[in-house]
């Protein structure tokens, strides 16, 4: 998109009219008045406010850049408020989200201060799309806090997912492990502090601290990458502890910061139901009251293989069955 320089048009002729890009500062701000950064009153109101997570964790907003308006501005490559009505801004943001036009969302950034157990932080830091500065236990004494598990909070290993959990241990048995956990925390901290008192270096003294020890960090990322983080870590399959942080960031921070984007994210991404081509064809057949065709489609995709007279385990089929139930469609093959 370009802006023509009308003053030179008559002398150079239509074929040679010079142009300047729309991002030229004089075209964007002809008065020379200072630009004002976008402010969001709802997020300004919680700057520095700690939102408590788990037993001793927290999330708080340190700084932010941009807003829903910034996303619209980037998408239109224009400058100035009030040129479009709010419902049109909402429509544009929803269009961008719906069609996965991601760059405008990258124009917004946020910096968070987080306090999180180290085992949870291990998962968090795998998202390599942020700038991070973490509390260093080489330079400073480790934070004297570790996540505690209540008697009713011990989860059992999932029988269907090797990296997941399901159901809870009986609280009476859990109380035994909570007591042992407290003993372990106390002993590891005692030994750590004894090493420091003896003059052992902090970088070595820390090596036997439990992964439940809290750490702190500044975490800065753009809105697009933050939404990707939230989609993965708010998912019911994510570990409960990091899900608690993701829920807090999404519902307490992003919903205030960019409410139109948050609404579109929930609608088109987090709560959306995605279908592969095979799944779409199965759904179409069932919607046409043709379960026989639906079964044949699933069978040709390798979802209905038999072992010892029973359906073989197949994760793709199980995921399709869950989607069919969400759509109130009967699973057309034997369970």
What's the short version?
This protein is of the alpha+beta class and 335 residues long. Helix content is 44%, strand content 15%. The relative contact order is 0.12.
Structural notes for this entry:
Helix content is 44%, strand content 15%. α9 runs antiparallel to α10 (240-257), α10 crosses α11 and α12 packs antiparallel against α13 (291-300). The radius of gyration is 27 Å and the shape is flat. The strands form four sheets. It has a five-stranded antiparallel beta sheet with strand order 3-4-5-9-6. A two-stranded antiparallel sheet has the order 1-2. A two-stranded antiparallel sheet has the order 7-8. It has 14 helices and eleven strands. The chain is an alpha+beta fold and 335 residues long.
Instruction: Identify the overall geometry.
Output: flat
Which architecture of the largest domain would the CATH scheme give at its second level? 2-Layer Sandwich
Counting helices, strands and paired strands, the structural category is alpha+beta
| Sheet with most strands | 5 strands, antiparallel
What's the structural domain tally?
A: 4
Radius of gyration: 27 Å
How large is the share of residues in beta strands?
A: 15-25%
Task: Give me the side-by-side strand order of the main sheet.
Answer: 3-4-5-9-6
- Please provide the ordered H/E string of secondary-structure elements: EHEHHEEHHEHEEEHHEHHHHHEEH
Number of helices: 14
Q: How far apart lie the N and C ends?
A: 57 Å
Low-confidence stretches: 1-27
Estimate the mean pLDDT confidence.
Answer: 89
């Amino acid at each position: 998109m370009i802006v023509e320089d009308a003053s030179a048009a008559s002398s150079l002729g239509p074929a040679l009219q010079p142009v300047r890009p729309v991002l030229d500062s004089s075209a964007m701000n002809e008065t020379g008045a200072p630009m004002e950064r976008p402010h969001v009153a709802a997020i300004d109101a919680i700057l520095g406010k700690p939102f408590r997570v788990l037993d001793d964790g927290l999330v708080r907003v340190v700084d932010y850049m941009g807003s829903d308006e910034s996303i619209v501005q980037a998408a239109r490559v224009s400058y100035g408020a009030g040129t479009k009505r709010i419902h049109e801004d909402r429509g544009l943001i929803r269009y961008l989200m719906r069609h996965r036009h991601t760059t405008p969302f990258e124009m917004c950034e946020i910096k968070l201060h987080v306090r999180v157990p180290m085992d949870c932080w291990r998962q968090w830091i795998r998202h390599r799309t942020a700038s991070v500065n973490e509390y260093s236990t080489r330079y400073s004494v480790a934070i004297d806090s570790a996540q505690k598990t209540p008697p009713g909070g011990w989860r059992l290993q999932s029988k269907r997912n090797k990296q997941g959990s399901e159901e809870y241990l009986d609280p009476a048995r859990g109380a035994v492990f909570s007591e042992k956990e407290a003993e372990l925390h106390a002993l590891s901290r005692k030994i750590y502090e004894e090493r420091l008192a003896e003059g052992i270096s902090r970088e070595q003294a820390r090596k036997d601290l439990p992964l439940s020890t809290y750490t702190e960090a500044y975490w800065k990322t753009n809105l697009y990458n933050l939404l990707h983080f939230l989609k993965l870590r708010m998912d019911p399959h994510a570990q409960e502890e990091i899900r608690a942080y993701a829920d807090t960031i999404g519902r307490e921070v992003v919903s205030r910061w960019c409410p139109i984007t948050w609404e579109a994210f929930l609608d088109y991404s987090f709560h959306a139901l995605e279908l592969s081509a095979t799944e779409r064809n199965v759904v179409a057949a069932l919607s046409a009251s043709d379960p026989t065709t639906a079964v044949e489609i699933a069978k040709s995709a390798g979802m209905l293989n038999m072992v010892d007279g029973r359906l073989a385990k197949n994760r793709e089929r199980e995921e399709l069955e869950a989607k069919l139930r969400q759509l109130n469609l009967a699973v057309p093959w034997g369970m």
